[in-house]
Amino acid sequence: MKRYLVVIGLMLMMLVVAAAQCSAAGSNQSEVATPIESATASINNEEALENRDEERAEVASNTDSPATGIEPEPVTGSSESPAAADALTHGADAACDDPFAGIGSANLRFYAGVWTAEQLARVVGEDIIKPDSGLATNFCLHNIDYREILSGGPPPDGIPPIDNPTFDPLAEGDTWLSDNHPVIALAVDGEARAYPLGILTRHEIANDEIAGVPVAVTFCPLCNAGIVFNREVNGEVLRFGVSGNLRNSDLVMWDNQTLSWWQQFTGEAIVGQMTGTQLNIIPAQMVAWRDFKAAYPDGVVLSNNGRNYDVNPYTSYDSSSQPFLFRDRSGQPAAPDPRLPALERVLGYAAGDTAIAYPLSTIAAAGVIADTINGRDVVIFYEPGAASALDDASISASREVGAAGMFSPQVEEQSLTFDYNDGTITDHETGSEWDIFGRAVRGALTGAQLEPMVSHTHFWFAWAAFKPDTSVYKEPGH
Asked: Are 171 and 55 within one domain?
C-alpha cells in the first residue's frame, strides 16, 4: 500500500511542479510551508492536511504586513522571454556576454528572472533584502553546468527558513518528542541544542547563533543530509534561504548579501559572486532525542511553538527505489550508482581526494568499526534507537535506522581500541564506557572526549552523485 501511495504521490507532485502556483510570506519560525518536493506525502493523511491548513491560517492571522508573493516566471519559453532578458541584464558583467551560452534559456529548469533585489524583496520581504540595494545574482560566475539545476517548484523561501529560532527546555520537548525522534545535535563551547528533523523537514534551514557563533543548521529531506555551517564569510554574517532549486536532488541555498547560490551538500557557492567559496562545516550528529537528552541534560531544543511536527510529509520516501527529482543534464531520471541501493543510508567522510562511504547497515552489524584513512586511525560508533524522519506518516512510528559517528580514537596521545557488546561501547585499555558522541560516560576516562571527524549520514545516491570516486567500506574478509 505504501508503494502504491508513493507512485500516486509522485504523479500528483510532478503535476504540481509543472503548475507551480507558488507564493510566499516573510520568513520566521511561525511560518510553516508544505514542501512542494514532498512527492511521497501521504494523500490520505487527514490529520496532516488539517494541521497544514491551521498553520497557514495562523500565519495569515498573525502576519501584520505579509510580503506580497509573486510567481516567478519559469524560463521555459523562447530565448527572448522577459525572464531570460532579465537574467541576462542583471547577471551579466564585462567578462560575460551570455551566461547561458551553449545551453539556451529554453532549456533552463529554474527561475532565473527573479534573482534581483527588487524581485526578491517582493517574495521574501524587505527585512531580508532591500529592494533598492541593486543586488543581483551574477549568473556569469558559476562552477557547475546550469543544466544540472532543476526548479523544485517553490520560489525563493517558498519553504521558509527559521530566522529567529526559539528554544525550550528538555522537559518541554518531552511533551511532543518521542525518544526515537531524530534530531541534529549541535554542541559549541558548552552550549548544546537539538534541532528535531520533524521541524527541519518543513523549514530546511535554521539561521541561528550558538555560543557567539553564527550557524546555519540545514537539512535536505530528499538527500537525508543534515549539515551545520558557520555562516560568517569574509567577516560578513550571511542569512541563508531556500532557493527553490535542486541539484542532484539536493537543496540549493542562497544568501541575502550577494544573492549567490550554495550547495547544501558540500557548503560550496556554485553560482554568483561567491562562487568557489567554501563554508566551514561545524561537527554535528544526527541522533535520537533520547541520546541528546542523556548527553546534554542542560541542553535545549528548538521550539515547536505548539504545532504537531511529528507528521512526516515525505511518507515512505526512503523506501523508494528512485530518488525524487534526481535528474541528469537532459532532464531525464538519473541512474543512481548501482553499488548500493539508492536510498541506503551511509556515513560519508571526505577530505581532499579521499571519500569513503560506510553503509549504516554495516556499521550497525559491527557496532564499532576501526579503520585507517590516509594513514590516520579512525573509529566509528553505532547507536540504535533513532527513527527515520522519512518513513511512516508519523515520525514516532517510523522504523529504526540508528545513528553513527566518526572519531579519532585518541585521548591525550593514548590510542584506544574499542569493543561493542550488548549495545555498550567500551575501550580495551581502561574498560571505560563511551556514548554515540564519543564521550566517556563511565570508568577511568569519564569526561574524556574523542575528537569528532567531520562526517554525515546521507542517502547513498546523493553521496555518490557528489563524490563519484568514493569507495565503499566493506568489512575485512568480505
From this structure: yes
